[in-house]
Design a protein that fits this description.
The chain is built from two helices and eleven strands, in the order βββαββββαββββ. With about 140 residues, the chain is an alpha+beta fold. The strands form four sheets. A four-stranded antiparallel sheet has the order 4-5-6-7, covered by helices on one side. Strands 9-10-11 form a three-stranded antiparallel sheet, with no helix packed on it.
């Protein structure tokens, strides 16, 4: 799954002020600055704000963060288990319950405006082929 405009989902934890952009300055108020209410692309804090938001969401919804790989989360429910790997604005997930996976996908699409890209074909330079004989990575 891919998050649409991931960094715009972040929440600012500190006060940030910027100069008025050229062409948008108010007459006789050129020295004033603008206080940001929301994160935007290009802001140094944007990646951290996005990661904090999705990390908090996972933890509040029953996922446990792997102590050795902080981008890996697991969730157990009864005998079912689900794994979610986060790479910037992409999620890769798998589990042994179709119901758990479909519920997760629906929730993530509504909460973060994600796009379901279907079965994984490429990831970080790897080619992934999934078929009846298994999963092949090259």
């Amino acid at each position: 799954m891919d998050v649409k405009s991931a960094f715009l989902n972040g929440v600012l934890e500190e006060e940030i002020y910027i100069e008025q952009p050229p062409g948008y300055m108010k007459i006789e108020e050129e020295k004033k600055v603008l206080k940001l209410k929301k994160v935007f692309y290009g802001l140094k804090q944007a990646p951290r704000a996005w990661n904090t938001r999705i990390d908090t969401y996972f933890k509040e919804n029953g996922f446990k963060q792997c102590p050795y790989e902080h981008a890996l989360y697991t969730k157990q429910s009864g005998g079912n288990v689900m794994f979610v790997a986060l790479y910037v604005d992409d999620l890769i997930f798998m589990g042994n319950s179709d119901e758990m996976i479909e519920k997760f996908k629906g929730t993530m699409i509504r909460k973060f405006e994600m796009i379901d890209l279907g079965l994984m074909k490429f990831f970080l330079g790897l080619v992934v082929r999934q078929g009846k004989m298994g999963i092949f990575v090259s």
